[in-house]
Amino acid sequence: MSSAPDRNQPESLTGLLGGxxxxxxxxxxxxxxxxxxxxxxxxxxxxxxxxLLIGIGVAGWRLGRGHRPRSVLVGLxxxxxxxxxxxxxxxxxxxxxxxxxxxxxxxxxxxxxxAVRWPLLGVVVGVMLRQRGRWRRDxxxxxxxxxxxxxxxxxxxxxxxxxxxxxxxxxxxxxVTARAALTWPLVAACxxxxxxxxxxSLPAGHPGLRHPLEPAPVPAxxxxxxxxxx
Length: 230
Prior knowledge:
The protein has one domain (17-201). Helices cover 67% and strands 0% of the residues. It is mainly alpha-helical and 230 residues long. It is elongated.
């Protein structure tokens, strides 16, 4: 029996990257902030306390289930930074300022990655599949990752288009609702959309993400005939 990997093995970005767990975890503290802010009579402290309690609870639960401490603590740190910003300014909507900056920076980073032919979608999937840079040596795969990465740029731009007017209008509960609606549902749509773009971009017969095609070696030039005058 051949031990070669099955090139027909089903694959998808959702299966490779997941994303649901992290997106849900990131949504809970902002929702808690909005509920705490509203129940406490629009007190920033009330919202911050609720967000921190939920953030600590999520972090403890994830650590108890054996998840990597670094990713858990990064999520908790983001909640703490958002809380500090809101407390320093005294403006509840500033709890979401870090989210605005993060989405703007992500949109820029993904766009630049496409322009320099290191699309971040390929970088992330390549790391997950332990391919290092092999995927970049496959022109079809490189092109597909570049096109698929534009879907992720669109995700961040859409969030900014929704968040910025609500932030400027100081609509705290609307920001909470938008954050919940544009986290896991949007991530799921982005994963499905970018996977569809990649599949449409790869030529027929391509073995898929797990098996980048190496370029054909250039044949060596035949040795030249000896110079008759030499």
